[in-house]
């Protein structure tokens, strides 16, 4: 059974950059990785034959090439997150990007240059926080009026914890630490 982990954050927070690094390193460790990406925009399929078939009305189009197989289908009631996860369940880990409100365990990605995303820390499914630098720590304190919010060492895993909300926090470039956290906390 695949481990499903949401990567939640707003546009520009660094979700895609983080996922690229996680996928690359986890693949090198021999894990099979799946990704489900939600987009609130129409998908631009270009003007190739695959797109022409789809726009002509085909319900499903599969394009097979030397380095990839691409499957495009029209959304139906059967394209909910559960169905999408089941369709790639042969993976060891499935990252889900863009389903901020989904009822799945998630890692929140915050960027100090953005004013949004802090509410995701209060989601009961949030398991960890990824930040771009420690300046965001003061923004979190101010945003939620946490006078006692401190960085503490977790004795079990040696990671930093945001004390008042009890969430581990990682700098985005600590890929090794994030992968260790995923393996310890999601894969057991």
Would you kindly provide a brief summary of this structure?
With 188 residues, this protein is an alpha/beta fold. 26% of the residues lie in helices and 26% in strands. The chain has a single domain, classed as Rossmann fold, CATH 3.40.50.
Tags for this entry?
alpha/beta; two-stranded antiparallel ribbon; 5 helices; 26% helix; 26% strand
Q: How would you characterize this protein structure?
A:
By secondary structure, this protein is α/β, with parallel strands linked by helices. The chain has one domain (3-41, 77-186): Rossmann fold (3-Layer(aba) Sandwich). 26% of the residues lie in helices and 26% in strands. A hairpin with a 4-residue loop joins strand 9 and strand 10 (167-171). Helix 1 crosses helix 5. The longest helix has 14 residues, at 15-28. The radius of gyration is 19 Å and the shape is globular. The mean pLDDT is 81.
List the helices and strands and how they pair.
Elements: E1 3-8, H1 15-28, E2 33-37, H2 49-55, E3 60-64, E4 69-73, H3 81-87, E5 93-97, E6 106-110, E7 126-131, H4 135-144, E8 151-153, E9 160-162, E10 167-171, H5 175-185
Parallel strand pairs: 1-5, 1-6, 2-5, 6-7, 7-10
Antiparallel strand pairs: 3-4, 8-9, 9-10
Helix pairs in contact: 1-5
């Amino acid at each position: 059974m695949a481990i499903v982990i949401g990567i939640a954050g707003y546009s520009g927070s660094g979700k895609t950059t983080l996922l690229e690094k996680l996928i690359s390193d986890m693949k090198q460790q021999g894990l099979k990785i799946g990704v489900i990406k939600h987009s609130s925009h129409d998908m631009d399929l270009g003007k190739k034959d695959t797109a022409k078939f789809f726009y002509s009305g085909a319900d499903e189009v599969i394009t097979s090439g030397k380095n990839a197989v691409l499957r495009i289908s029209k959304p139906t009631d059967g394209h909910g997150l559960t169905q999408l996860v089941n369709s790639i369940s042969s993976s060891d880990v499935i990252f889900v990007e863009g389903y901020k409100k989904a009822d799945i365990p998630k890692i929140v990605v915050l960027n100090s240059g953005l004013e949004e995303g802090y509410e995701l820390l209060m989601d009961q499914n949030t398991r960890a926080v990824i930040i771009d630098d420690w300046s965001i720590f003061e923004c979190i304190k101010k945003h939620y009026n946490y006078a006692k919010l401190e960085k503490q060492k977790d004795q079990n895993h040696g990671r930093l914890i945001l004390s008042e909300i009890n969430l581990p926090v990682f700098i985005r470039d600590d890929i090794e630490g994030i992968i260790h956290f995923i393996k310890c906390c999601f894969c057991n």
